[in-house]
C-alpha cells in the first residue's frame, strides 16, 4: 500500500476498502526526538491520539488516513505535546498535495462537486479557495496601466467593475461593484498610480468622482463606444414610435430592417440602402432621425477638438423639435459630460476590448451556474495561460568597467530583468473556456 499512498514519511499499518473510500491506518515513520517547547531530548511516551486526514483520490476513491499520532511528555519543561504530522497542509486536516489539488480545481469546478469528490464539506473547499486566491493576489501582479479603461459587466445579476489596460487590451482586475468607495480604494492601492495618464470610462458619475479624487492629474475620457450607443438608442426611440401605425407585417419588417438603420451610411450595401430608403421615404421622421444619427457620428471624423465642438453645436441647433425630443438623453449627456466626451479628440483612446469582453461574459455566465462571484473572478483573472507576460531579454554588463584592456573587462554578467504581466487576454481565455481547458 506504500506505493499507492506514496507518502514515505508514513508507515501503513492496515488498509480497508469499501465502495467509495480507502481507509488507511498509519503512523509517522520518524517519531520526534526533541521537545517542541524547549528542545530537550529527554522525552517519554504519553499515549497516542488518532488523527484523521484526507488525502488525494486513489483509484477514483476518496482516501482517509487515520494517523496514530504519538503524544510525548518532556521531563525538562514538564509539557506534553502531540507530534506534528509531515506532508499535511498547515491548519488543515488534509495532505499538502490534496490541498494543492483542491486549490487548482476550485478555479475550474464548483465547490460542491469538489467536496463530494474528496469527502470534505463545502466550507472546507471554500476556505482552501480563499487562501489560494489570497496567495495569487500577492504573487500575480499586473502592471499598472498608463492608459486605463474602466467599464462594467453584468455577472450574477449585478454590474461589476472591469479595469483594463487599454494600450495592451488586457483585463487587469474585476471588482465586486462599481461604487465610488470601491473604485477609490482600488485606485488608491495601485502601485505607481501616479503613472496613470488617462482613464476612459462610461458616463457613470462615481467613476468620475473616484478618479478625480485619487488621480487628479489623469485625463478622463468618455469612451466613444458609449456615446455612439446613445445616438443609436435615440434612433431606436423614433423607430419604435412609428410602430403603432404599421400593420403586423410591416412591424415585423421594420424590426428585421432595424439593423440597416444602425449601420453607418457608408457601410450600407446596395440592397440595404434601397431598403432603408423605402422606410425613410414613407416615414420622413425616421429618415430625419437617421440623418441626425449619421451627422452626430460624423463629429468623430474631425481631428481637432475645436472643429468637433463647433460641429456638435451646429448639429444640436439644426435638430427639429420631434427629433430633438428623441435625442434628448444624448444632448443631456453631452451637456453634463462635455469636457470628458470631447477629451477624446485630444486623447483618442477607447475600450477596444469591449466586444471580446462581451463574448467572454456570455461564456462565463453560461458556465457560471453554481459559482460565486469570487470564483468567477478568479477564473477570469488567474487562469494559467491567459496572461500576457513579457520577460525582457537580459542585458549583459561589464563585470569590471575600469579594467580596460584586461580580459575581465569583456566577461559579461546578466543584469536582473523584471517580468511584466499586462493582464488577461480575453480572447485567449475565451478559447480556453470553450475548449473546456479551465
Automatic annotation (TrEMBL):
Residues in Transposase IS204/IS1001/IS1096/IS1165 zinc-finger domain copies: 32-77
All copies of the Transposase IS204/IS1001/IS1096/IS1165 DDE domain together span 148-380
Coiled coil regions, renumbered to chain:
none
Which intervals hold domain Transposase IS204/IS1001/IS1096/IS1165 helix-turn-helix?
83-132
Q: Which InterPro entries match?
A: Transpos_ISL3 (IPR047951), Transposase_DDE (IPR002560), Transposase_HTH (IPR032877), Transposase_Znf (IPR029261)
| Xref: PANTHER family | TRANSPOSASE FOR INSERTION SEQUENCE ELEMENT IS1557 (PTHR33498)
Q: What is this protein called?
A: Transposase IS204/IS1001/IS1096/IS1165 family protein
The organism is Trichlorobacter lovleyi (strain ATCC BAA-1151 / DSM 17278 / SZ) (Geobacter lovleyi)
